Amino acid sequence: MLSLSDGQQFVVPAGVLADTGAGRMGVVLAPELLGRLQHEHAVTSLADWALDALARGRRTRRELELRLRRREGTPGQVQEALARLDAAGLLNDESVAQAEAASRLRRGEAPARIQQRLRRKGVAAPQVQEAMASAMHDDAFDEEAACRAAAEKRARSLDATDPVAARRKLQGFLLRRGFAAGIAARVARSVLESRRAE
Q1: For residue 173, how far is the Cα from the chain centroid?
Q2: Is residue 28 scored above 70 in pLDDT?
Q3: Residue 90: pLDDT above 90?
Q4: How many CB atoms lie within 10 A of CB 65?
Q5: Which end of the chain is flanked by fewer CB atoms within 10 Å, N or C?
Q6: What whole-number distance in Å separates Cα of residue 190 and Cα of residue 46?
């Protein structure tokens, strides 16, 4: 941290202090040098904030960019902060996509819904496809089996006295979870028929 005689304090990379000579005692800072220190301090603060966000959970570059834009930095400072994290190997949309896809598949979400979420997070389409294929292969994912598990769990809370309404509600639930329409219809019908037969 660099402290000036007027009370201003800057947190900047050591290389900036060496480049500018601002770390020496008694140096009078020219306005352009002071401006550079202010800029570097802002970029460092944004990068530190983004690093804290990464420590709390997986984030894509796009998610971090949107969050940093809400802070008090310029678009250029935001890009510099992200570039620092990228250079340090801390930004990797591909690994975020793979971890997110695997986690959500295990929780019973449908591939279509997961793909939509990943695209909203700013993951590029080829990376989304690769992450989904990898997660589905690794977990031997079966969409119909996952749909059936979700339907059976949900069917327990449906009113069995009105089978038409129950099927409509269950099918709507499955569609909102992202399961394909044909699978959702077939599974909803099958699960509710099994429950009535019990």
Answers
A1: 24
A2: no
A3: yes
A4: 17
A5: C
A6: 53
